[in-house]
Amino acid sequence: MQIAQVDNEAKTRRTHSFRPQLGMTTAIVMIVLLALMPILAPIVHPVVPPLTPSHVDLAIANVPPFTDGHFFGTDSLGRDVLSMALWGARTSLALGLVAAMLAVTFGSLWGAVSALLGGIVDVVMMRIVDGLLAIPPLILLLALSALVNGPTFTEALPRAVLSTLDVTSYSLGFLPFVTVISVIAATSWLEAARIAHARISSIMTEEYIEAARALGAGTAHTLFRHLVPNASRIIMIQATLLISDAIVMEAGLSFLGLGLSPDTPSWGTMLRQASSDLFLGNWWAPLVPAALISLTVLAVELLGESLLKLMGYDDRLR
């Protein structure tokens, strides 16, 4: 009886350890394949002006997949879907990665400083987070995006900033990239702040933190030498999960016309421009970016969930 119970417990442990490993392996394979897309873009479809990824050729509009060298076909404007998807991967993945890193960095520092200082400062800082979390994320995202994309905001920027971003009278340069990243980061740091606050508050009860402060360790030394390194695992998992959120947000903003310019290939702009193609019977133009966004989100979520389980965190971060 006892032997059978031990065998069942061992089998359960193997099952619980196998599932996260299988999920992580699957996620890593998917992420590697997606990461190869930006690398393959200039090889498979080199940009030779005027044959850019957004080059319009109405003579080959709505060509179905696997026809005339167009593996994924073309859209209603004759643009090659595979070329736009490969080059769009550069934009979407880069925006998601940068926005997630900014959000988790600012949010983690906010939560860590709040927990470290404590008292009334802690209460005020975390009430700010709770107040912003009470606003629906979509409304906050759209409000900030409409604000920073308005002409008044652009005119208010210093000339040095506009020159750095290559903004001219006929081109917005890199300004759309910066605004989209800033808006996404500004609406994504709240959960990171709460998670960092909870983790740092737990770590501060440890004896080695009390010993360090008793030996005269200052606030900055305690924060960056002891607290943040010991909370880095859970923070990095949160950063991983935020990447998928940032990619979905960019796609949503571009679909609503508040994201990148139409001539900038990204999965979001592809979805927006191809949404009208469905009425022409062109189902492959919107299907490709939608599938890529879904696969990216699935891969990142699988990786995050597997890391949570392998590191002993049974509850989701959000």
Global structural class: mainly alpha
Q: What share of the residues lie within helices?
A: over 70%
How far the N terminus sits from the C terminus, by CA atoms, comes to 41 Å
User: Overall pLDDT, averaged?
Assistant: 78
The CATH homologous superfamily: MetI-like
Element order: H for helix, E for strand? HHHHHHHHHHHH
Quote the CATH topology. Answer: MetI-like fold
- The domain tally reads 1
Described by its quaternary structure, the protein is: single chain
Q: What spatial form do the alpha-carbon principal axes imply?
A: globular
Can you tell me the CATH architecture? Orthogonal Bundle
CATH class: Mainly Alpha
Please state the CA-atom Rg, rounded to the nearest Å.
24 Å
Secondary structure tally, helices: 12
Q: Low-confidence spans: pLDDT under 50, at least 5 residues?
A: 1-18
